[in-house]
Amino acid sequence: MDHSGGRPVLALVIFMLVLTGAVAALALAPPHVGALLDPVGGVWGSARAADAPDRETLRLSALDDPVEIVRDSRGVPHIFAESDRDATIALGWVVARDRLFQMEFLKRVATGRLSELVGPPTIGTDRYFRSIGTPRAVRQNVAEHYRQGGRRADVVEWYATGVNTWIDGLASHEIPFEFRLFDAVPERFDASNVYALLAYMAYDLSFRSEDIAYARAEDRLGAAGFEALYPRYSDWEVPIIPDGQCDCKFDAPAAARRSASDHEGGLFADGRSPQSVGSSGGAVDVSRMALTEG
């Protein structure tokens, strides 16, 4: 019988024993990697905590009634609650369970605080996000949140309550191992964190931030020179129906069958990877595809 599959595990066990012995012999505090590989509270504990059941009933002190959570075959949670409040609290709880470190990481990116966690290598990232104003936008949204109140503020507070309920219930060995890798603990969640995540989503979905640079380049190069260096349409942005293949199999207006080359890609698309183009391109109903002349 081939036992080669167990060799990586054996090597890891030997490494942990050697590391533990060296630390004990030298009377040193365990390094971060030592905490990560702790056989009791290290990455193994995180793995156990991440094993969410397919079906569970939440009975939290923050909830008015029990909430049912059912995960489908892809691990996507479906929440069944008696009220919007309970559903939103449960949503925050579930997202924190699945993505707590990601939430911590992205809120720090958006507010220019990533270097507090990672260190000097990300100072440039913090400067960039502070320069484009996302921390200021977060502060403005938070001020509006508390000034206006209302339904939106309630939803944000409910969501934050769910996140904090998950954080408060974590045992030390259940804290995601990424936190231990950086010798950090999860911060409490509040409205500013919600708006920080929204600010990062707005930035991420906008894809580009080079408009000013392109405008300056066109001023210096002229329209023809700029078009030569930065063509309006990229060669790799081929639409679903390639150029010259407009013999459509459905009854559509002539405007919808214009040469694909007229509608290929987007302005200055050279900066994006092909993988980021047309993520929903195959999900557009034909009734939405007619193009108008002009």
Helical proportion, percent range: 40-55%
Low-confidence stretches: 1-6, 8-31, 259-270
CATH homologous superfamily placement of the largest domain: Penicillin Amidohydrolase, domain 1
Please state the overall shape, judged from the principal axes of the Cα atoms.
Answer: globular
Radius of gyration: 26 Å
Oligomer: single chain
Beta content comes to: under 5%
User: How confident is the prediction overall: mean pLDDT?
Assistant: 75
Tell me the number of strands.
Answer: 3
Distance between the termini: 72 Å
What's a quick, concise take on this entry?
This protein is mostly helical and 294 residues long. It has helices at 7-26, 32-36, 43-49, 84-110, 115-118, 123-131, 134-148, 150-168, 177-181, 191-206, 211-229; strands spanning 55-58, 67-71, 77-80. Helices cover 50% and strands 4% of the residues.
Any descriptors?
3 strands; 11 helices; 294 residues; mainly alpha; Penicillin Amidohydrolase, domain 1; 4% strand; three-stranded antiparallel β-sheet
